[in-house]
Amino acid sequence: MTTLPRNSTSEHDRMEHAGAGRYWIVWALLLLGTLVTLLLSRVHLPSPFHLLVALFIACAKSALVVLFFMHLWDHGGANRLVFATSLIFVVLLIGLIVLDNASRFALTNPGHGRTLDMEPPGPDILTPRGPPEPAARPPSGPEMQPEPGAPVRPPGR
Amino acid sequence: MQPESYVAHHYPNLRQQEHAARLGMWLFLATEILLFAGLFTGYSVYRFLYAETFAQASEHLSVAAGTINTVVLITSSLSVALAHHLVQHGRGKAAALSLLVTLGFALVFLAIKAWEWTHDFHEGLLPGRFFTNAELTSTGAPMFFTVYFLMTGLHGLHVVIGMTVLAILMVLCWRGAYDHGYTTPVELGGMYWHLVDLIWIFLYPLLYLI
């Protein structure tokens, strides 16, 4: 192969000087990260750390991809700003919504084991006040909820 | 052809044109990240609500297939990066071969995914009310597979789109369209492929290694 004379007016100069070796190193590190994730997933860690370790390694791997494969290391300025802004919104979206679920009174979350066992405080607001007609009764299920259009019968009718 | 002849009339020089194109690509990738963020949010909420069930349901996925697919996608990202590097040095034909390798890896990825999905269909591991698996009985198991199929499905769609883009770039590289100092299309197409890789880097531990 002939080597072309390098046209040094190009913006890619720094990238070209770095050479292809950098991509191979990043690739090796990504494979290492995958192996570490796989092995650490077999280790039994206490509850939040299992997820945190997996996410930390995934973030480190993505940082390598974004910085070197996608050239954010060389191309700064507005590109970094756009990417960082999207990350901030991802964190806001996921963080606040999970925080909402985590901070709710448990019965307002969709039914699962613990919720169904729990007695509601105060007056029993979940049991239907009058017996519904047998035909209108939907097929039985533990987490049956009243249908949106179904009228609530007043007591004693 | 000189690189300058690629400059559109509203840019003073090629450097500014490349800057603008790259910034536009990053804006597009930001919207893609937010698109997937919606699904990751759904995943987070239901994993929070049904933590034990998600761990049980995840064991019905093949960790081996997920790991192989991770390695395949990472390696395909490497070959895209190498293609960009080669075309910058005026070696369009070598870059085209590198992109061909990428397309091969992408096909392997889709083949493994298809095998996994077929396996899931036979086991009755399907979204929502189509879920018929007898071993998984706890509440929330159908939701895991709803999230799983939506996320891997949208990701698979992106793989197919990326393959189309890379196939076009491969033909153009082979014809020598980017041998004269103008390589922005290869760079931007490569960035799309790296994003597909990026999403998978998060899908792999979150779906397969709970």
Sequence of secondary-structure elements of chain B: HHHHHH
> Would you tell me which CATH topology of chain B applies?
Four Helix Bundle (Hemerythrin (Met), subunit A)
Strand content of chain B is under 5%
How much is the average pLDDT of chain A?
75
Description:
The complex is a heterodimer of chains A (157) and B (210). Chain A is mostly helical and 157 residues long. Among the domains of chain A are: 18-74; 76-108. Chain A has helices at residues 13-18, 21-42, 47-69, 78-103, 113-117. Helices cover 77% and strands 0% of the residues of chain B. Chain B has helices at residues 14-49, 51-58, 63-88, 92-123, 141-174, 184-208. The longest helix of chain B has 36 residues, at 14-49. Chain B starts with 13 loop residues before the first helix and ends with a helix. The mean pLDDT of chain B is 92. The interface between A and B is large, with 56 and 59 residues.
How are the SSEs ordered, and which strands pair?
The complex is a heterodimer of chains A (157) and B (210).
Chain A lengths: L12 H6 L2 H22 L4 H23 L8 H26 L9 H5 L40
Helix pairs in contact in A: 2-3
Chain B lengths: L13 H36 L1 H8 L4 H26 L3 H32 L17 H34 L9 H25 L2
